[in-house]
Amino acid sequence: MAKIAIGAGHGMHTSGKRSPEGEREWSFNNKVVSAAINYLNGYANATVIRMDDPTGETDVSLTTRTNAANNANADILISYHHNANTGQWGAWTGTETYYYPGSSTGLALARAIHPSIVGAMGLRDRGIKSANFHMVRESRMPAILIEGGFMDSTIDIVKMRNNSVMDQTGKALANAIAAHLGLQSGGGRNTYTVKAGDTLWGIAQAHNMTVSELKRLNNLSDDTIYPGQVLIVSGTSTNFSKKSTGYVEVLASSLWVYDAPDWDAKYEVVNQGEVFTVKKELEVKGSKMYQLKSGLYITGNSSYIRYFTK
Ligand SMILES: [Zn+2]
């Protein structure tokens, strides 16, 4: 199992970070990252940890991003951006990739990825550079930050506004990652069908995951599995949160609440018909969770709860 931490820089509403015509940097970054994830899902044994908010609503902090990658023990980290020079239209141009100064594994990753991005964008090769950026400094795995092109370049913006170029750049990124990590094609979302005698621990070991990762990816609330059950053993998990101002009503006859944003952190059981005020919506390893006003957490799965606003 290869774990790839990837994120589109910033959020939709981050101040600055716009082209001279007001287009958001995140939306360009997101096009490449979303395409890359789609293409990575075509490889076997790849798990993607998406570090930014896939809706763009929240600008997830840099620390939250590197914590997500570090906690997941990701094998590599890719932070995807588009550059700006003056904020006014100009003729500067090109693609560049950054790694942390002195990091030989970061440099190796940059060398493995950068030429593919240059090729797909079809812009000037500004080279591989080192810089003391948070994303490459605070990550414990080989990490790079890519600047695909300049948002304020009359040359580069033509490429960035072309969805086909953005998609092909995502594909080039995915294929370069796959070649670097030795991923095999023909995966799709990998699943495993439980056989008699299997244990969560054994299945996790066989797929190079921890039991808690396997449980989170499958939204399992306890260790019970049964023959014939289909478990997801690779895929995309995200780690972000956004403010919410609604309520949840418990539909299940009884339901766990948690004292941490962690499916293993069971705290107490609540009962059908109870209503709680929601403070935040989170996605924890691919499954929706709400933080309640009380500070406790509850599932966002609509099979068990009803979310409503007044
Ligand atoms: Zn940026």
Task: Describe the overall structure.
The chain has 310 residues and is α/β, with parallel strands linked by helices. The protein has three domains: 2-181, Aminopeptidase, CATH 3.40.630.40; 191-232, LysM domain (Membrane-bound Lytic Murein Transglycosylase D, Chain A, Roll); 246-309, Roll (SH3 type barrels). It is 28% helix and 29% strand. The protein has eight helices and 16 strands. It has helices at 25-40, 62-71, 104-121, 134-137, 156-160, 163-181, 200-206, 211-217, and strands spanning 2-8, 46-50, 76-83, 95-99, 125-130, 143-150, 191-193, 230-232, 236-243, 247-250, 254-258, 266-271, 275-284, 287-292, 297-299, 305-308. The strands form three sheets. Strands 1, 2, 3, 4, 5, 6, 9, 10, 13, 14, 15 and 16 form a twelve-stranded mixed β-sheet that branches. The chain is globular, with a radius of gyration of 21 Å. The chain starts with a strand and ends with a strand. Zinc ion binds next to loops.
